[in-house]
């Protein structure tokens, strides 16, 4: 989709794009939809590595609950087709820097493009522990988010892989979905006496043996095997192992991070770098697809409002337009 075919974009603007969106997931595509409908020229760059690629279905998105993630993205891209001022390209953004009037991005292959604004919708990468069998069951019996997958695992024997405050906290939270929860720390649990006492009171056992592997049959997780030969029957494991930014670009641009490593944004999703916005998992603690889509829409609203303001000021300065 090329903006040159649109014939509908406003006459104002220098050559280039209004917005470059880095990342074509729910946040980025939601922003592109809003901006496309505002007649803005938008370039969406994505390399096709979604965080939830292993998931069978997404959940918690009103009207799309249970939809395969790839299907949601396909629907979103199809719904952008009526807006020829929005371009989708499967290409990596190698760098972004400030430039007169906005930003300049260097794409894979060396091509450079300019835009007034940039939206980072680059997501995060989950840190998976190197336990044999874990990747085999990732997305089917091994998960990160109980809000996304807890319902499907309700009333089953569950385990949390984690340590310290975060591991203990997730184990306690899982009691909302199952009464049978254990904490497996794969070594010292790093719990305070108060945390141990609380878990014991909640009926959550703590297993500090090293994990040897995860086992299952017919593609379903059934058992955790420890290095000492003992086993624990479990049908689901939820990870409390952290994550990191998928892209280095925001930090290279000087964006401030929160103490949890997310991009710090204001009320309308702008980062600490003026004109650079962020939406989706890279910027918030509530990592749900429906929230990512809302953040993308909110960022688009903010960028369009600024473009409107700049356009009106330009018209008022132009004698030919006032006449």
Keywords:
323 residues; alpha/beta; FAD/NAD(P)-binding domain; seven-stranded mixed sheet; five-stranded parallel sheet; 17 strands; disordered N terminus
Write the layout of secondary structure elements.
Elements: E1 17-22, H1 26-37, E2 42-46, H2 69-79, E3 86-90, E4 93-99, E5 102-107, E6 112-120, E7 124-126, H3 134-137, E8 142-143, H4 146-149, E9 158-162, H5 164-173, E10 181-184, H6 193-202, E11 206-207, E12 211-217, E13 220-226, E14 231-233, E15 236-240, E16 243-245, H7 249-252, E17 276-278, H8 289-317, H9 319-322
Parallel strand pairs: 1-2, 1-6, 2-3, 6-17, 8-15, 9-10, 9-15, 10-11
Antiparallel strand pairs: 4-5, 5-6, 7-16, 12-13, 13-14
Helix pairs in contact: 1-2, 1-8, 5-6
Q: How would you explain this protein's 3D organization?
A:
The protein is an alpha/beta fold and 323 residues long. The protein folds into two domains: 3-125 and 243-322, FAD/NAD(P)-binding domain; 128-240, FAD/NAD(P)-binding domain (3-Layer(bba) Sandwich), CATH 3.50.50.60. Helices cover 27% and strands 25% of the residues. Strands 1, 2, 3, 4, 5, 6 and 17 form a seven-stranded mixed sheet that branches. A five-stranded parallel sheet has the order 8-15-9-10-11. Strands 12-13-14 form a three-stranded antiparallel sheet, with no helix packed on it. Mean pLDDT is 91; it is low at 1-15.
């Amino acid at each position: 989709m090329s903006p040159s075919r649109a014939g509908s974009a406003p006459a104002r603007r220098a050559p280039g794009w209004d917005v470059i969106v880095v990342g074509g997931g729910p946040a980025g595509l939601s922003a592109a939809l809003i901006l496309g409908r505002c007649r803005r020229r938008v370039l969406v760059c994505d390399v096709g590595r979604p965080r939830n690629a292993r998931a069978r279905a997404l959940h918690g998105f009103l009207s799309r609950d249970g939809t395969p993630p790839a299907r949601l993205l396909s629907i979103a891209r199809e719904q952008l087709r009526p807006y020829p001022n929005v371009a989708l390209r499967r290409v990596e953004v190698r760098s972004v820097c400030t430039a007169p009037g906005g930003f300049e991005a260097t794409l894979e292959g060396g091509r450079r493009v300019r835009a007034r604004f940039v939206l980072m919708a680059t997501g995060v990468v989950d840190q998976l522990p190197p336990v044999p069998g874990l990747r085999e069951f990732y997305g089917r019996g091994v998960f990160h988010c109980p809000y996304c997958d807890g319902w499907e695992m309700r009333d089953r024997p569950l385990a949390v892989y984690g340590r310290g405050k975060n591991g203990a906290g997730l184990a306690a939270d899982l009691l909302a979905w199952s009464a049978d929860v254990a904490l497996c720390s794969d070594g010292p649990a790093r719990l305070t006496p108060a945390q141990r006492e609380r878990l014991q009171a909640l009926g959550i056992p703590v297993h500090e043996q090293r994990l040897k592997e995860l086992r299952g049959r017919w593609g379903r997780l059934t058992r955790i095997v420890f290095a000492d030969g003992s086993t624990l029957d479990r049908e689901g494991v939820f990870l409390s192992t952290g994550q990191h930014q998928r892209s280095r670009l925001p930090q290279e641009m000087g964006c401030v991070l929160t103490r949890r490593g997310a991009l710090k944004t204001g009320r309308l999703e702008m980062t600490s770098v003026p004109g650079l916005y962020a939406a989706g998992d890279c910027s918030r603690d509530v990592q749900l697809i429906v929230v990512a889509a809302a953040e993308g829409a909110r960022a688009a609203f903010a960028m369009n409002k600024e473009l409107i303001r700049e356009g009106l000021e330009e018209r008022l300065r132009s004698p030919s337009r006032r006449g």
